[in-house]
Amino acid sequence: MNTGPAAPEPTPEEEAALERLYSDFDSENLVPLWTEIGDLMPPHPRSDADPHLWRWKTLLPLAERAGDLVPVGRGGERRAIALANPGLAGRPYVSPTLWAAIQYLGPREVAPEHRHSQNAFRFVVEGEGVWTVVDGDPVAMRRGDFLLTPGWHFHGHHNTTDKPMAWIDGLDIPFVHATDSAFFEFGPDQVSDHSTPETSRSERLWAHPGLRPVSDLRARHNSPIAAYRWEYTDRALTEQLALEDEGHPGVVEPGHAAVRYTNPTTGGDVMPTIRAEFHRLRPGTATATRREVGSSVYQVFEGSGVVRLGGKEFTVDRGDLFVVPSWVPMSLGAESRLDLFRFSDTPVFESLHQDRVSVEKESE
Ligand code: GTQ
Ligand code: FE2
């Protein structure tokens, strides 16, 4: 510990005076920089969050047990079970800025409407039969779909089938909590529209590639597309790899196709605090090792492989989730074809000009 500017050996009187000084700092709620600087101003980000993996085969049975034992309804609002990073002192946070949870809705169950300043999305790794109703627009949830609930939009979920459904939620709850900017309001106890259309009104108006309604050409800070369907994501990735086979550009690195979900009114991220992407690796390929400012969460959608996170290495399978804390070196290797959904807090750092990326080396 640095105890201040270099000085000759202190006399016992000086030692005692120094001790009184620190004690007076403490009682006056003052802290000197020189005792804290290593932690406050590190040479590069050193996250308290750990790289960590949660296995789907562990998560889903626990969500099912919660479904049997814990009702969903007004007050608790959602049967959502948060991934709590073991480095974050028992907080239900997957990273310092992000929330990730498995949410479970049994047959015919309803999660009541509410709205909050936190931005939210859903990603579906398996199942169907739930409609999320966003500002009165019923949006079907199916495998591979990425669904948005931007801040301050009313939303409730209802399962219209005799089968349960589970999916993952991502929100900026920790960021909003840390910045004291949370607002919340209850809506109706039921969802406001019980119809079950295949396609939401939002998609019918907005989800046509390269086409916008001339009736509304404003730039918006949230994407107006409520659901990004698997059909389009899959096709985009398939075409990137086909173009690579034909010798044309498009992939991010050899054997690695990737798309970002975007806001068609700006071309930027879907929401101000959350970035979302989908990645596909060919069998047997590995990515370069990267570090990035900000944290990411990945969910394996299909296939198996290995992820290296700092000194740790995990094998991953369908449904497994892992978190990459800020500035932790990360690389992926695909055993079979490996499809991964990813979300991150990068837009926060880009907005504030604190973003950095470092590509360390080609691995394997
Ligand atoms: O589905 O509205 O995982 O409000 C956490 C907070 C889900 C939701 C979560 C929420 C929701
Ligand atoms: Fe919510």
UniProtKB/TrEMBL annotation:
> Could you tell me the keywords of this UniProt record?
Dioxygenase, Oxidoreductase
Q: What class of enzyme is it?
A: oxidoreductase
Q: Where is the Cupin type-2 domain?
A: 103-169
Q: Which organism is it from?
A: Nocardiopsis algeriensis
Instruction: Please report the name of this protein according to its UniProt entry.
Output: Gentisate 1,2-dioxygenase
Q: Name one Pfam family in it.
A: Cupin_2
Source domain of life is Bacteria
What's its EC? Answer: 1.13.11.4
Q: Which GO terms describe its molecular function?
A: gentisate 1,2-dioxygenase activity
